[in-house]
Amino acid sequence: MAVTKIRKGDLVQMLAGKDRGKQGRVLESRPRERRVIVENLNTVKRHTRPQPMRDSSRMGGSPMTPGGVIEKSAPVPVSNVMLVCPTCNRPTRIGMTTKEVKGREVHVRQCKRADCLQEIDK
Q1: Which of 4, 44, 3, 42 is nearest to 23 (CA)?
Q2: Considering the entire predicted model, what is its pTM?
């Protein structure tokens, strides 16, 4: 199983592509594909036609989903984003350490910057 160190809800910064340097929250992580979807970054336009909604027969009429040009975020390779540390507010690499919690060892992500070294997962 593929494991990525970037999870849903993390703040990341783009390293490459048209949105290079911008920051956004991770909406979805796809570890098997090694890709993440970042909010409002790497947006693509999708042309859709109006389609009837599912389970609309219960409500009486046939409501339609609107058509037109819809902008949505496309997946980005994990190698093109870098996690922003919540304590030092800078893009950082991620290290893993083990921590003792209630008698169990738990893996915790850690900022790799020499002047920070704080835990990312509290």
Answers
A1: 42
A2: 0.81
